[in-house]
Amino acid sequence: MAGKKKNTGLGKGLDALFGELGMAPAEDTAADAAVIAGAEEISIDDIKPNAAQPRKVFDEEALDELAGSIEQHGLIQPIIVRKAGEGYEIVAGERRWRASRRAGLKTVPCLVRDLTDEETMLFAIIENMQRRDLDPIEEAEGLNNMIKTYGLTQEQVSKSVSKSRPYITNSLRLLKLPEEIRAMMSEGKLTSGHGKAILSLKTKKEQIALAEKIAKEELSVRAAEALAAGGKGKTARTKGRAPGKNAEVMQIENELKEKLGTKVNLVLGAKKGKIEIEYYGRDELERLIDYLRA
After folding, report:
1. pLDDT by residue (tens digit) across 131-166?
2. Where in the chain is CATH 1.10.10?
3. In the chain, how many H helices and how many E strands?
4. How far, in Å, are 14, 37, 42, 73 from residue 67 at the CA level?
5. In this predicted model, what pLDDT tens digit does every residue of 25-76 receive, in sequence order?
6. CB of 233 within 8 A of CB of 243?
7. Is 94 a catalytic residue?
8. Domain 14-163, what fold?
């Protein structure tokens, strides 16, 4: 249909997406040399950041180190841009652009691509995820934008960024955490594994208390999971459930959680019990049903 935007990124792996941009993975130095040859020099002042850039925090010390390297060796990998008004907007490479400004460069090598808003956001997310430049919350917000802004399904997002469906689901769940905890994750005080453990607690007060304890005592994810399970045990006692879970039961729960990609709770009784499987939305429920039927 004429005028319809082409979803060129959907369903493709990282190699295909970067190949389409003419951009090699960071570790492929031979390909970098070939790519730089096809780039054009653009005034650094004619380039602006992308407002939809998923990465919000840039480490100042790391930027200084990169700027020093650029001063000495130049910018080895070009920045990906698209036309925007009288200038250009960054698609991928804002960190390199910032460091180049610090290094005093007047122009930077760029690859100019004709991309839609959807493609621009997709490539920005993929580049950052491949280089592990996003903190867990930035990553979750980027994935959520792909779903909310462009109406993509979790399955489409999964294929686009070459991550499993459980990975996408668990990442999105982090956005349900209280703002205080999300800030701690962005600051590097908590990992995504810590966040998943905290999510198993029911109240905001319990979640924040556990997050603060994890950060203060620098607890491992396994220790956080054990504390979270203990907190649920207290709640269970008020409902007549078993007063606690031994290590074997917790291990089984963790194994099921990894298999199903969501929280699993074993409720044990003297003669009977039940297995509780949590889901977060209709898509997640359908995925679990399909998995269990298979």
Report:
1. 666 788 888 988 888 888 778 888 888 887 778 888
2. 166-293
3. 14, 7
4. 27, 21, 18, 10
5. 444 434 444 445 578 899 999 999 887 666 666 778 878 888 898 888 888 8
6. yes
7. yes
8. 3.90.1530
Q: What mean pLDDT comes out for the span 191-195?
A: 90
* pLDDT single digits (tens) 223-245: 888 888 876 544 433 343 444 56
Where does the chain hold its CATH 3.90.1530.30 domain(s)?
14-163
* Six-digit token string for 152: 């993509």
Catalytic residue among 89, 94, 118, 138: 94
In sign, the C-alpha dihedral spanning 195, 193, 138, 200 is negative
As a whole number of angstroms, the distance between CA 77 and CA 25 comes to 10
CB 245 within 8 A of CB 266: yes
Distances from the Cα of 205 to the Cα of 60, 138, 201, 219, 228, angstroms? 33, 24, 9, 19, 13
Question: pTM score, two decimals?
Answer: 0.55
Q: Which fold has domain 166-293?
A: Arc Repressor Mutant, subunit A (1.10.10)
